[in-house]
Amino acid sequence: MTVAVPKITDMKVYPVAGYDSMLLTLSGAHYPYFTRNIVVLTDDSGQMGIGEIHGGDSITKSLESYRPLVIGQKISAYRQILNDIRQKGWREKNDSGQGLQQLNLANLKYVVHAEAAIECALLDLYGKFVDLPMCDIIGDGRQRDAVEMLGYLFYIADYHKTDLPYIHDDDNDDAWGKVRRQETLTVDGIVKQAEAAQARYGFKSFKLKGGVLSGDEEMQAVVALHKRFPDARINLDPNGAWSLQEAIDLTKKYGTALTYLEDPCGPEAGFSGREIMSFYKNATNMPVATNMIATDWKQFYPSLMMKSVDIVLADPHFWGINGSLRMASVLNDWGLTWGSHSNNHFDITLALYAQVSAAAPGNITAIDTHFIWQDDQQLCDDALNIRNGEIKIPKRPGLGININLEKLAAANQLYTTLKRHDRDDSRAMQYLIPGWQFDPKQPTLVR
Ligand code: GKR
Ligand code: MG
Hints:
- The protein is α/β, with parallel strands linked by helices.
- It has two domains: about 10-135 and about 405-415, Enolase-like, domain 1 (2-Layer Sandwich); about 140-400, Enolase-like C-terminal domain (TIM Barrel, Alpha-Beta Barrel), CATH 3.20.20.
- It has helices at about 55-65, 65-70, 80-90, 110, 115-130, 175-180, 185-200, 215-230, 245-255, 275-285, 295-305, 315-320, 320-335, 345-360, 405-415, 425-430, and strands spanning about 10-20, 25, 30, 35-45, 50-55, 145-150, 150-155, 205-210, 235, 260, 290, 310-315, 335-340, 380, 390, 400-405.
- Strand 9 (about 235), helix 9 (about 245-255) and strand 10 form a beta-alpha-beta unit.
- Helix 3 (about 80-90) runs antiparallel to helix 5 (about 115-130) and helix 8 (about 215-230) packs parallel to helix 9.
- The N and C termini lie far apart (about 70 Å).
- Its EC number is 4.2.1.40.
């Protein structure tokens, strides 16, 4: 007896928005809203499969253009569907041909692969069809039942200095609910933020987003975090803002407080970021992670040759689910480390990170997530939770979560009220420093 494989009967793309705090990075200040795109596939067995990807008009346009390549296909043809999309689908290209994540944000759409949302939705359906969680059917299958997540700490600007509608007083039940909306620009403030995040989520690893204050001040925060949490793995990510010499000097002065550094320096004096990071590693022996200099296989090759990186943050939204796990296998075989980068996201991405990380072989690093800044804005029922610093893979098939169409409609409605859909962190900065402009070599508040 043959079992009928379900066919896709419908594909909907919902651009959505959520609320955010005034988080600071080298790119500027997060706006009160972040945007994402949600894909919902329906098959003729009545199941729904879901995927989430970055926001922005160009990504919505790509996804819409893929509908004819998806509808009518069997869910078992998911690899062929993705091949068709890559060969025939529309994708905005960068004239320079570079996919580097340069952190000027306008560039992000060239690094993001919109079809990863369709890959996720197809694998969600496929998992439901074969009655297995996604991590059991991707890559080499399940490697672990729980995945460690890191506590992603940010400096935060005072939203009172703006007339923008930043979310506040939405969740005053515990310290985390309060501190995540308050100005945080000091060493003590960062330690309090980490304590509050640890109390709610149990983190054993932390990452501080840098590129905001001087390197020295940010490293002092790292030292204080290390003192407060001596057993925690601690990482700082200035997104390449420091010069090579500054990165070396700061590492020599404060490096014992760090487990690794993420993108400490970038292109300089005619050398690429890959070359500079290699020089940095030679000088310091500090392990280095990146989501900036190895964002595709072509960039990975010279990064490997020059030993520029130890930990590749292979975000499934940049590499695809299959590509991210291919990277995990390669890194594991060659004694390097896999992790994932993140941007602001909803619970669909959280579930995807958990499933992909559960299938990544070897000794992976704790996974980035912005979700602790958004964790009461779920779009799904049965959303996964971070407890004791980790996410347990649920027994439910596919992604393990189910879209709540009312919540999805509300997030889509919020999106329709926004005048602009692309991320631009220089907008809110104008309230703090009039005329502020992105400078890849100048921390945001050092002007
Ligand atoms: O949310 O502003 C942010 C982050 O700075 C994000 O845009 C980065 O891409 O988290 C990312 C990173 O690790 O570089
Ligand atoms: Mg990074």
